[in-house]
């Protein structure tokens, strides 16, 4: 007579699988027995009170506030809402490495050190201690000087043509 092909390990694994299956069926039956099928619609509602907290009771209608659609702001403030900034700044070059093409400008108002790259110079050659005017834009690593020009002060506005002298 031949021996059975099943080993002890196979029989043990089969018993474990059968046990897991029966436990799973028992848990399923228990969930179905404890389920709140047909619960009232009001029991499933959740409300938000005047402070923004979730509650199970409806809000008090006397505390209701009416909010106009125009008062709700979701995006960035419009240009007209912000006060205009003076983007033109003056400063002096504290460091510039022409071989690597970058340097730093110290802002004369805030004493802040601002990064400048050779691409923002527009072909201009600057050296340390030069007085420059520039604008600041935010880059990925912080403020960058752009539109850099020589000269410590902004040029005066063009003068109006002189009126002819009265004779």
From TrEMBL:
GO molecular function, a single term: nucleic acid binding
Pfam families assigned: CSD
Upper classification of the organism: Bacteria, Pseudomonadati, Bacteroidota, Cytophagia, Cytophagales
Annotated Gene Ontology cellular component terms: cytosol
UniProt xrefs under SUPFAM superfamilies: Nucleic acid-binding proteins (SSF50249)
Protein's UniProt name: Cold shock domain-containing protein
Entries under InterPro entries matching the protein: Cold_shock_domain, CSD, CSP_DNA-bd, NA-bd_OB-fold
Biased composition annotated in UniProt, kind: Polar residues: 89-99
């Amino acid at each position: 007579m031949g021996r059975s092909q099943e080993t002890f390990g196979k029989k043990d694994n089969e018993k474990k699988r059968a046990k897991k299956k029966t436990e799973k069926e028992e848990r399923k039956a228990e969930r179905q027995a404890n389920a709140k099928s047909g619960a009232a619609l009001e029991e499933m509602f959740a409300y938000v009170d005047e402070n923004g907290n979730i509650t199970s009771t409806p809000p008090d209608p006397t505390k209701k506030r009416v909010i106009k659609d125009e008062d709700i702001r979701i995006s960035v403030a419009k240009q007209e809402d912000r006060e205009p900034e003076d983007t033109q700044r003056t400063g002096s070059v504290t460091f510039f490495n022409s071989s690597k093409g970058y340097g730093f400008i110290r802002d004369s108002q805030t004493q802040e050190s601002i990064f400048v790259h050779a691409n923002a110079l527009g072909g201009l050659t600057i050296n340390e201690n030069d007085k420059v005017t520039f604008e600041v834009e935010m880059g990925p690593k912080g403020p960058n000087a752009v539109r850099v020009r020589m000269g410590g002060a902004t040029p005066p506005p063009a003068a109006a043509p002189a009126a002819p002298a009265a004779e």
